[in-house]
TrEMBL record, chain A:
Keywords: 2Fe-2S, 4Fe-4S, Iron, Iron-sulfur, Membrane, Metal-binding, NAD, Translocase. GO terms for cellular component: membrane. It is found in: Membrane. Its main location: membrane. Belongs to the complex I 75 kDa subunit family. This is 2Fe-2S iron-sulfur cluster binding domain-containing protein. GO terms for molecular function: 2 iron, 2 sulfur cluster binding; 4 iron, 4 sulfur cluster binding; metal ion binding; oxidoreductase activity.
From TrEMBL, chain B:
The keyword 4Fe-4S applies. The keyword Ligase does not apply. Its cofactor is [4Fe-4S] cluster; FMN. Its EC number is 7.1.1.-. It catalyses: a quinone + NADH + 5 H(+)(in) = a quinol + NAD(+) + 4 H(+)(out). Pfam families: Complex1_51K, NADH_4Fe-4S. This is NADH-quinone oxidoreductase subunit F. NDH-1 shuttles electrons from NADH, via FMN and iron-sulfur (Fe-S) centers, to quinones in the respiratory chain. Residues 340-385 form the NADH-ubiquinone oxidoreductase 51kDa subunit iron-sulphur binding domain. Belongs to the complex I 51 kDa subunit family. One of its GO terms (molecular function) is metal ion binding. Keywords: 4Fe-4S, Flavoprotein, FMN, Iron, Iron-sulfur, Metal-binding, NAD, Oxidoreductase, Quinone, Translocase.
From TrEMBL, chain C:
Its cofactor is [2Fe-2S] cluster. It comes from the Bacteria. Belongs to the complex I 24 kDa subunit family. It comes from Flavobacterium franklandianum. Binds 1 [2Fe-2S] cluster. Keywords: 2Fe-2S, Iron, Iron-sulfur, Metal-binding. [2Fe-2S] cluster binds at C93, C98, C134, C138. Pfam families: 2Fe-2S_thioredx. One of its GO terms (molecular function) is metal ion binding. InterPro entries: NuoE-like, NuoE_dom, NuoE_N, Thioredoxin-like_sf. This is NAD(P)H-dependent oxidoreductase subunit E.
Length: 349, 455, 176
């Protein structure tokens, strides 16, 4: 099947979604996605960040789709044409969703452990405004202790349902879920049940914001002060393939290996994540390469260094163009236009 | 006197019981369908009738039926949507309470047409006593051999149950209803796949409103063509209208499509005019979700044609000067009512009923309610009106299900037609302190205050 | 959000269990979760109109589902109560058509008469007043729900009468 996204044509298998096709193309056409996670069945469609415009339904039915479609749950059709970055409607909708997600968000990035690797932060950097039109009191929730490993900050949650799906699909006993409804929906165990399943730590990795963070890493460091390394160990429960986040010789945090779309390659067990913080526990493979542009890799040594050229400075040194020309009288064109007409034209006699 | 199809027998004493209903020709459509028609022929009749979904969207029922996936070989289901919760609408409750067997007869005939062997009626939790009425009626029908195995010796089996909800407007959305029927939270599903392909327990499912299904027996007994003769153009047949607000005779009425809004409002057979000598100010023709219209656009369209009770005429002029027939929830306002307060009230409703699954609706409905609450209580700012328009435009069309649109439209329409009233609230907060501020001083009498300032 | 735990005496009587099993039989094999909402109604009616965590766990056990699945559903739907409530709960519809017919004044009147605010229970545990969204009785406004039934075309006098009838134990709450 052939699909065109923002003018880029690509061949895809039947069953591919618009988002997956866009990710194959890569670059600017990839819409942001906060709730979709390729490894979680049934995820997506909820946050509405990835809305895209289908300007041509398919070869068989070329009519455009009247509404913007959530690209993570809309399947490609042969001959479909989609606009993301190039559509003002899509850009407007992404701004709108960003605003909606932020109105009740505490905006406490300075004290949030997710800051620096937060999808909502990236989204608002791309689409948000510096001022808020929301003057009402923000919604808040009473805190709840959900056990020794995971810290829940409900006020930051965007209700992507990913953690619920992890509990359903990766662990064998879900003890937390989405309670209540509307803008009071919240993640809870209801009965302060400790979430202690062996794979429950993956909830932290799939959380796109700072709602679920690692208690063993709490307030230890800003993520960009850590150096991430790919590491592995012989683990009886999971693949043991992780990323360890180091500050000097100390492993401050262990996470799954995330790709450029912040999706983990393989889910890891709680033992790897929380209980193995000695360098001797791990075989370090080498520095973790980040494809996605983020604050984490701004000072990353794996980036290729290129000479910085500042264009304005160069021009200043050269001087103004007209000044340069006038240095030599010989170069002056005496037939130069003054009033818009050449001097020697018939009109001037 | 117009023709009655659904309520013609409602006044017969004892019609609630099986015996009386049967003596008056009840269940004859089941006999006719099972003995003389193939399922496809029933579908064809409904197609010919032009019957449109009575829940609000007005999608042709026969066409919806023809989409059901028969190739997969999976069991099929018919689910009746009796989760009537749209503010201003109470027609289905009337039908089920006073003539329950009509719905059950419709369910059997329609299930036969769809080849469904297991069907459900999903009724809202608050209608608990109606739930019991339906349960008893189903038991009566079953005892009389209209349900169960090999009905009338035709080889067709059907089990019908009634399922109760528990207080959630969103379960009136068909995929949320299916989720709720599966014992889950009423979060609407992402479409596609449509229920006709993957609905209840991933089986092909058709969800129809009570009134839609109740019209099927008449169509089968007579013919689709006869049904199509009633009404105007693509608005065929009769429609139940629930009327409420400042009118003399509130209640449920069956009208032939094409009746003029003027006659419906003012004739003694129907609403009998306003409830007091206070003049008409506005009306909502199709339940809280549809745009409100000001007095001058009620009886006449913008082209000065008579406004009729049809899908087309009520939406004439688009959202600029028209509205929608919706579910037929007809709410009338006189000049004591405050449009800002009413809009806030509707907004509070949608805020309360949003399932919270997708961001624009979850966050946007709450935001609109808070802004409208401020304006109504004298804390509005000049920029709030444009802010409301902006929020509603960002919700509209960007949500998983139509609740987002339903929350956005009334706000947009109220500002479109009554902007000066919002401005009045913002500029004269001391005048609107009392919640019945327009009773002693209707807006007409203070309108000049805003128009002078507006220039 | 952490929830308060309230103690409740659980009594799954014979007729209640029979009814539960009948409800489960309405759904195909393996789809017993579908019976959750009707069962919760029955169980709640039999337990003073509210559901404790113990009771919800019991329902989860009967349906062989996770307790959290029950909590999720209970907290979504407005008709399930998660704390002890007044025996007679006056649920006034406060959506627009009822407001046009004076439900707000009537709610003020009722609250004043009972000496409670919206959402509060009287000290004797007999009454509670709530404002709810559209109950589908717009043409018979103002109205309220009391138990399984609607009280329509309300006036102050009718409210007085209903309160008196409640005190005299003359009100039927459930249609069994």
């Amino acid at each position: 099947m052939k699909v065109t996204i923002d003018g880029h044509e690509i061949e895809v298998e039947p069953g591919t979604t618009i988002l997956q096709a866009a990710r194959m193309i890569g670059g600017e056409v990839v819409p942001p996605a906060m709730c979709y996670h390729s490894k979680l069945k049934g995820s997506g469609g909820k946050c509405r960040c990835c809305l895209s415009e289908v300007s041509k339904g398919s070869e068989a039915d070329p009519r455009p789709m009247p509404k913007l479609m959530a690209s993570c749950v809309t399947g490609c059709m042969d001959g479909m044409e989609v606009k993301t970055k190039s559509s003002p409607r899509v850009q407007e909708a992404q701004k709108a969703v960003t605003e909606f997600l932020l109105i009740n968000h505490p905006l406490d990035c300075p004290v949030c452990d997710q800051a620096g690797e937060c999808d909502l932060q990236n989204l608002s950097f791309e689409h948000g405004k510096s001022e808020s039109r929301f003057i009402e009191e923000k919604r808040t929730f009473e805190p709840e202790d959900i056990g020794p490993n995971i810290q829940l900050h409900m006020n930051r949650c965007i209700l992507c349902y990913r953690c619920v799906m992890v509990a359903d699909q990766i662990t064998d006993d879900r003890v937390h879920g989405v309670m209540d409804r509307g803008d009071h929906s919240n993640i809870s165990t209801c009965i302060s049940h400790a979430i202690d399943n062996e794979f429950s730590g993956n909830m932290i990795d799939v959380c796109p914001v700072g709602a679920l963070t690692d208690k063993t890493f709490r307030f230890k460091s800003r993520v960009w002060f850590n150096k991430p390394y790919d590491a592995h160990r012989d683990c009886p429960t999971c693949s043991g393939k992780t990323t360890v986040w180091m500050f000097g010789d100390e492993i401050q945090r262990v996470t799954g290996r995330k790709d450029e779309f912040h999706e983990v390659d393989e889910f890891i067990c709680n033992s790897c994540r929380f209980d193995h913080k000695n360098v001797s526990d791990w075989i370090i493979e080498g520095p973790r390469v980040f494809e996605k542009d983020s604050v984490i890799n701004q000072n990353n040594y794996t980036q290729k260094l290129e000479k910085v050229v500042i264009n304005t400075e160069e021009t200043i040194l050269l001087g103004r163009v007209q000044d340069r020309i006038k240095l030599s009288m010989a170069e002056i064109d005496y037939n130069e236009k003054i009033d818009g007409n050449p001097l020697n034209s018939e009109k001037n006699g | 006197m117009s023709q009655k199809i659904l309520l013609d027998k409602v006044n017969i004493p004892g019609i609630k019981t099986y015996e009386v209903y049967r003596q008056n020709g009840g269940y004859s459509s089941v006999e006719k369908a099972l003995k003389t028609l193939t399922p496809d022929e029933v579908v064809e009749e409904v197609k010919t009738s032009g019957l449109r979904g009575r829940g609000g969207a007005g999608f042709p029922a026969g066409m919806k039926w023809s989409f059901i996936d028969k190739k997969s070989g999976k069991p099929r289901h018919l689910v009746c949507n009796a989760d009537e919760s749209e503010p201003g609408t109470f027609k289905d409750r009337y039908l089920m309470e006073y003539i329950p067997h009509l719905l059950i007869e419709g369910m059997i005939t329609s299930s036969y047409a769809l080849g469904a062997n297991l069907s459900y009626i999903y009724i809202r939790g608050e209608y608990m006593w109606v739930y019991k009425i339906l349960e008893r009626a189903i038991a009566e029908a079953k005892a009389a051999g209209w349900l169960g195995k090999n009905i009338l010796g035709s080889g067709y089996d059907l089990e019908l149950y009634v399922q109760i909800g528990a207080g959630a407007y969103i379960c009136g959305e068909e995929t949320a209803l299916i989720e709720s029927l599966e014992g889950k939270r009423g979060n609407p599903r992402i479409k596609p796949p449509f229920p006709a392909v993957s609905g209840l327990w991933s089986n092909p499912t058709v969800v129809n409103n009570v009134e839609t299904i109740a019209a099927v027996p008449w169509i089968v007994n007579n013919s689709g063509a006869d049904y199509a003769k009633i009404g105007v153009g693509r608005s065929t047949g009769t429609k139940l209208i629930s009327a409420s607000g400042h009118i003399k005779n509130p209640g449920v009425y069956e009208i032939e499509m094409g009746l003029s809004v003027y006659e419906f409002m003012n004739s003694d057979e129907y609403l009998g005019g306003m409830s007091s000598d206070r003049p008409l100010k506005a009306f909502v023709p199709g339940g809280s979700s549809v745009p409100v219209l000001p007095a001058h656009l009620i009886y006449k369209t913008a082209n000065n044609e008579d406004r009729l009770m049809t899908y087309e005429s009520l939406s004439d002029g688009g959202f600029a000067t028209g509205s929608m027939l919706g579910s037929g929830g007809f709410i009338v306002y006189n000049d004591t009512s405050c449009i800002v307060r009413n809009t806030w009230n509707f907004s509070r409703f949608y805020h309360h009923e949003s399932c919270g699954q997708c961001s624009p609706c979850r966050e946007g409905t709450g935001w609109m309610e808070k802004v409208l609450h401020r304006i109504e209580n004298g804390h509005g700012r000049e920029e709030d009106i444009d802010l409301l328009l902006s929020i509603q435009s960002k919700i509209e069309g960007n949500t998983i299900c139509p609740l987002g649109d339903a929350a956005a439209w009334p706000v947009a329409a109220a500002i479109r037609h009554f902007r000066d009233e919002f401005e009045y609230h913002i500029r004269f907060p001391e005048k609107i302190k009392n919640r019945d501020h327009f009773v002693a001083e209707p807006f007409e009498s203070v309108k000049h205050l805003v128009s002078k300032l507006t220039v | 959000m952490e929830r308060t735990h309230y103690k409740q005496e659980i009594n799954m009587t014979e007729p209640l269990m029979t009814r539960i099993n009948e409800l489960i039989s309405h759904y195909p094999e393996g789809k017993q979760k579908s019976a959750l909402i009707p069962i919760l109604h029955e169980v709640q009616d039999a337990h003073d109109n509210w559901l404790s965590f113990e009771l919800m766990n019991k329902v989860a056990e009967i349906l062989q589902i996770k307790p959290i699945e029950v909590y999720e559903v209970v907290s979504f739907y407005t008709m399930f109560n998660q704390r002890p409530i007044g025996k007679y709960m006056f649920e006034f519809c406060q959506t627009s058509p009822c407001c046009l017919n004076g439900v707000e004044d009537l709610m003020d009147y009722t609250c004043e008469k009972l000496g409670v605010g919206i959402g509060e229970t009287t000290p004797d545990g007999l009454f509670e007043v709530r404002g709810v969204e559209c109950l589908g009785a717009c043409g018979y406004a103002p109205m309220m729900q009391l138990g399984d039934f609607y009280k329509e075309h309300l006036t102050k006098e009718k409210v007085d009468q209903i309160i008196a009838d409640c005190r005299d134990n003359k009100i039927t709450l459930h249609d069994k």
